[in-house]
Structures are given as structure tokens and as C-alpha cells.
């Protein structure tokens, strides 16, 4: 048998319009050059256009020069460097928590944290559209996974009532800004339910860190929910333009994570240059507090252009703007047509999004100026309405 089982799987994906490939690009960011031509990239998560920021790059180089290319060990052996602790202290302060802990990626942050918050005899209540990494972490935990309708507080309360307190832990998980729909969770109402039903609450702030809240502190901080949200999770790979993940939490929970989180313990510490870049980003967010507000104003403007062209952006309220096409093959064809016109808008298909909801998932960044948004909207409207 060996590998003869692989080809039928690949053939089936191709027949459904779900074949994937990793296309190389000559550079990263919201505005790039391909074959000497400027291209608008609406599939980058570099929301604040900081991946090439001079100060951020200088901080990364300084860390590289001081510490070398790698941490060379796990955090609990000899991999913890002064800059790891400095970044954790600054993240905790920004997020309004007692402590923070860095992981190798956002995926690892979720995979390391959720299985500690809930185990085999416990319950996890998850929004139907939470990120795949959160669902995988729920499976790792062994807890009973209970899904509630997307951003539906009544649905969540119904589910919570179905499982009365019996000494088992309860954990509610959601995102603040949802990665594929761009809408915002009713965090204050969810936090109130968490308190009412004696549940912990974990919020994935991957797409709101840097883009919402005071100095980019996220929506949990903006809404003053730090005491109601057990864990505020974030990444350094979206608005922070680099790589890595983290959780902000109590000192006690951080201590427990250091003791027991497998995704923290059994892996090499993030490399110094990556941490140095994150520290540089923190400097920029402190010195330029309006970056997120400018981004959201530009996103509002772009949405208004799409709406004027009769395009449906679902409930988007952020820099993430979806345009649902439905059919997988048509989504890919539209994406290719736009690319030929100098606009990168990658088609997102199942299983990343639900069946029948293939879409263009557009990311507005500060690399996109108003005239860029005008041009892109005109092209997208023209292609989709043709």
C-alpha cells in the first residue's frame, strides 16, 4: 500500500475545486512588486504596514547581533533570554494583566493553554467560527466540546444551561475579531454570561491586537474586560508583523502554564531576532497610538465603496472584509482575474470557511492609500458584477 492512498485524496480535492498550493511571492506586505510591477496585496495580515519599519528592523538586528540566530534551547533549560522576559512584561502591561507568556506561534499558544484550562471531565463552549487552532486545542484537552451559534449570546446561554455546575470546570472560547468574517464578538455580554455561570473565558485577540484598543491593546482592554476575561491570547504575526504567540493572564495561571503547558515546555524558545522585532513593534505602538484608528477608518471607507457596488461584506466591522462568492471554482477564477489586474485577493475555501461560503477575504493595511482602495474597489466590483 505505502503511498498509493494519497493520490485519490488529491484527486478528490481537485475535483471539488479545493486543491491548494503555496505560491512564492518576491516580498511581503500590503503593496509589493511582481516582475517590476506594483501589486496591491489584500491577503496580507501586516495590517499596520510594520514588517519593513526601520525601527522594528533595527531592533531585530540588534537582538541578532547580541544573542545570535537562535535561543538554542527550550525556555526551561537555557533558552530564556532577557529579551523574552522583557517582552512578556511589556505585553502584560499593554494588555492590562498581571503576567504574559510567549509561545512559538499563535497556534501553539492555543494548543498549550486550552488543554490546561479544561480537561476530560470539563466543558468547553466554543463559538461555531473560532479558529482551527482553538478547535484542535479543544480536542487535545479531551473536554466535552459544546458549540454555540456564531456571536449568538442567547445560544451560548442555552448551552450553558444544558450543563449545570457539578464541580466540573467550564470554559468559554471566542475570538474578538473573527479571522474570516471580520466581525466582532459581543464580548461584554459573553463576559457577563461567564460570570453568571461561573465559567472561565478565553478570547483570541489575534486580529484585534494592534488594530483596536488604546495603543493597540485589543478589544478586551478597550472594553475594560480584563478582570472578566481569564485569558487574552494574541499573536506577533498579524498587526505585529513578525512571528510568535502569547497569552496574557494572572500570575498563577502563567506559573501553571510554565509548569505544564506542553507547547511551551517541549519546544525551543522563539529566536532573538523575532523577539527583538516584537519589542520594536511595541515601541511603535506606544509612539503612534492612532495607527489602529486610521486603519479602521480606511476599512470603513473601503466597505462603503463595496456596498455602493452592491457587494455583501457580511457583518464585517474591522480591517478584515469578506466577499462571499459561494462556488469554489468561481472564487478561484475571480481571484485569478484580479491578480491579472494587479490585485492579490486570495480565494479562501473550505475547510477554512464553511461549505458553500468560498470567498475573497480582503485585508486592509496601512500600505493601502485611499487611491489604492478606490482602484481596488472599482476592479473588484467590476469583476464580480460582470
Give structural notes.
The chain is α/β, with parallel strands linked by helices and 386 residues long. The chain folds into two domains: 24-47 and 290-384, Aspartate Aminotransferase, domain 1; 54-287, Aspartate Aminotransferase, domain 2, CATH 3.40.640.10. It is 43% helix and 16% strand. It contains 15 helices and 13 strands. The strands form three sheets. Strands 3-9-8-7-6-4-5 form a seven-stranded mixed beta sheet, sandwiched between helices. Helix 6 (132-141) links the parallel strand 4 and strand 5. Helix 2 packs antiparallel against helix 12 (272-287), helix 4 packs parallel to helix 12 (272-287) and helix 13 (291-308) packs parallel to helix 15. The termini are far apart. 48% of the residues are buried.
CATH superfamily of the largest domain: Type I PLP-dependent aspartate aminotransferase-like (Major domain)
Return the domain count.
2
Radius of gyration: 21 Å
The CATH architecture of the largest domain: 3-Layer(aba) Sandwich
* Average pLDDT level: 95
Shape: globular
Low-confidence stretches: none
For the record, give the distance between the C-alpha atoms at the N and C termini, rounded to a whole number: 48 Å
Q: CATH topology of the largest domain, anyone?
A: Aspartate Aminotransferase, domain 2
How are strands sequenced across the largest beta sheet? Answer: 3-9-8-7-6-4-5
